[in-house]
TrEMBL record:
Reaction equations catalysed: guanosine(37) in tRNA + S-adenosyl-L-methionine = N(1)-methylguanosine(37) in tRNA + S-adenosyl-L-homocysteine + H(+)
Residues involved in S-adenosyl-L-methionine binding: G187, I212, G213, D214, Y215, V216, L217
Domain of life: Bacteria
Assigned protein family: Belongs to the RNA methyltransferase TrmD family.
Any Gene Ontology biological process: tRNA N1-guanine methylation
Chain's role: Specifically methylates guanosine-37 in various tRNAs.
Name the UniProt record assigns to this protein: tRNA (guanine-N(1)-)-methyltransferase
Signal peptide: none
């Protein structure tokens, strides 16, 4: 997998030379290049930002600098999009009727008003993820849609962290792990100009914008690091033991939080590991871990329980959920009394 990262602090990603990620690079599983956005500037100060249109605090990253950089990395020629007639200042014409609301920040302190565009897709283009309105709180953002097919392998997927975008999930990580080339853009200050993702969507690029949680960071570098690790650890050969990712939290259909883990000694400072784990009975151990996963998910993330397919639950699963206060006779579990 080829990975390009654009940032005003490319040295931040020196950490990718450590641990499993460093070993993956040495083995040729991933090829990572961090680019300095300022290399595409032409003024003496290497400026990448300017004041917000319409006023307001902070600075916004300029589209011209980003465009020169992304055109180079994507192998595109500069183009001019045709504004739609109803609002030439905020809309980009498209060949379809669908519109997408584009947030304008990337892990910034504030989210200026979004920009509506219509996404143009060629017949072989990968699906485009739409994003939440930039003025909405990240907590209101829906889960990021997952395309029916992996990203097209013949072109990069362009990804921007954005606190106003849909949440990045394990399903997104799994989907993106099938891509051959990922290109990440790290925003700073008040974020990037909303026309940047709008423009590249209009050029048929698979553009994704993701939030990694309901909080705001100073820049996109941390968020990119989080997404990179979640994606690349799913690559064949990346993990030392591939079985270690099979039962992890959020993994697979019917995903739950993982059960607790213990190691030796069996007793430490007066606290023993559960006796069943010392029994040698693998069937009982598996059942104990499954029940604990259900119980932990019920306590911490009941929304995941509510998404389970009751038809796929085993009789012991149903018994455990009923004991935890769930009705399991319908299509999905329902909290009794809810």
């Amino acid at each position: 997998m080829k990975i390009d990262i654009v940032s005003v602090f490319p040295e931040y990603f020196d950490v990718l030379n450590l641990s499993l990620f460093g070993k993956a690079q040495a083995k040729g599983l991933v090829e990572v290049t961090a680019h300095n956005l300022r290399d595409w500037t032409h003024d003496v100060h290497h400026s990448v930002d300017d004041t917000p249109v319409g006023g307001g605090a902070g600075m916004v990253m300029k589209p011209a600098v980003w465009a020169e950089c992304l055109d180079d990395l994507l192998g595109l020629e500069p183009a001019t999009v045709t504004p739609s007639s109803n609002n030439s200042n905020t809309s980009v014409a498209a060949t379809t009727d669908a519109t997408a609301s584009v947030p304008s920040t990337a892990n910034a302190d504030a989210a200026p008003e979004g920009t509506d565009i219509a996404a143009s897709e060629e017949s072989n283009a990968a699906p485009v993820n739409t994003t939440a309105d930039a003025n909405a709180d990240a907590s209101d953002a829906p889960a990021a849609p997952v395309s029916a097919v992996p990203p097209a392998s013949d072109r990069p997927v362009l990804i921007f962290p954005n606190p106003s975008a849909p949440l990045f999930t394990q399903r997104d990580a799994t989907e993106l792990s099938h891509a051959d080339h990922l290109l990440f853009g790290c925003g700073r200050y008040e974020g990037y100009d909303a026309r940047i993702p709008a423009y590249y969507r209009a050029q048929g690029v698979d553009v994704r914008e993701y939030s990694i949680g309901d909080y705001v960071l100073n820049g996109g570098e941390v968020a990119v690091s989080v997404m990179l690790e979640a994606i690349t650890r799913l690559l064949p050969g990346f993990m030392g033991n591939p079985e270690s990712i099979v039962e992890e939290s959020y993994t697979g259909e019917g995903a739950l939080l993982e059960h607790r883990q213990y190691t030796k000694p069996a007793e430490w400072r007066g606290i023993r590991v559960p006796d069943v784990l010392l029994s040698g009975d693998h069937g009982k151990v598996d059942r104990f871990r499954r029940d604990e996963a259900l119980a932990r998910t019920d306590e911490i993330r009941p929304d995941l329980i509510a998404k389970l397919d009751c038809a796929a639950l085993s009789k012991p699963d149903r018994k455990t959920l009923m004991a935890l206060g769930w009705e399991v006779s319908g299509a999905h579990p329902r909290r009794l009394g809810a």
